[in-house]
Amino acid sequence: MRRLTVLLLALPALLAACGGDDRSAEVERLQADVEALRAEVAYLSGELEIAQSERERAEEELTQALADLERQTAIAAAAAAAVQAESGDMVDDGDDAPAPAPASEEVRAYFQQLEAVFQGATALSAEIVAKIDATARTGDLDATTALFGELAQVLEGAVAKAAGMEPPPALASLHGEFVASQEGFAQAMADYARAIDRVTTWEGFGAVVEAFPQSPDFLAAAGRAVIACFALQEAGAESGVSVDLRCEGI
């Protein structure tokens, strides 16, 4: 950048040395160089500003994500403690740290139902993703884009089932955040499917597939859903229930 600035400052003097108003080929070439260098400086300055802005936004998002994770972890710990209190005293298994008492039937049934919903949705989503890949290979753009709508509907259906569940009182707060975050991610997926549905060329399809999942809104929705999912899953583990809500698949 400094080299370009020096050249820009020096070129007017070179132009004067070449004859001032004399429109010789050399003068015209130097003038063209000036304009090209100015354009490059402007472009690089703009890129630098964008990079600085993106870095600041990334730092803000990371700070917020860490705060959300800390908050959800605290909620999960409190919920697990409440579940333990409902289940009875802690059971000593002979180790230094007491083992959690068995979860109540209500807590166990809740996690089993929720696990079945999201494991089923994950399996169905995997089938649709495989269809998307196979259909794209045939060159059928319309059929390929339509499958993204099916993918969004699978998540919407799973979230609706979760929203209709009645969680144990000790898990109500975590469940509420889990459902709200999943609803936000389902909306982001629906927006993604609509963006895909509007494309008319494979070039446009590729551009949306590459850019949309990296958009700030999509990443924020996915991040919130992952944090809430792991917090609820951790509460299950701490209350004595081994549960897999497929948080990694979000």
Summed up, what is this model?
This protein has 250 residues and is an all-alpha fold. It has helices at 2-17, 25-87, 105-138, 141-163, 172-197, 202-211, 216-238.
What does this molecule look like?
The chain is mainly alpha-helical and about 250 residues long. The chain has two domains: about 1-60; about 70-250. It has helices at about 1-15, 25-85, 105-140, 140-165, 170-195, 200-210, 215-240. Helix 1 (about 1-15) runs antiparallel to helix 2 (about 25-85), helix 4 (about 140-165) runs antiparallel to helix 5 (about 170-195) and helix 5 (about 170-195) runs antiparallel to helix 7. It is elongated and about 90 Å long. The two termini are about 40 Å apart. Mean pLDDT is about 80; it is low at about 1-10 and about 90-95.
**Number of E strands:** 0
- Cα(first) to Cα(last) distance is 42 Å
Decide which structural class fits the backbone.
mainly alpha
- Total count of helical runs of at least 4 residues: 7
Which overall shape is indicated by the principal axes computed on the Cα atoms? elongated
Q: Beta-sheet strand percentage?
A: under 5%
Low-confidence stretches: 2-11, 89-95
Oligomeric form: single chain
How many whole angstroms does the radius of gyration measure?
A: 29 Å
The helix content is over 70%
Order of helix and strand elements from N to C terminus: HHHHHHH
Largest sheet: none
Number of domains: 2
Average pLDDT: 79
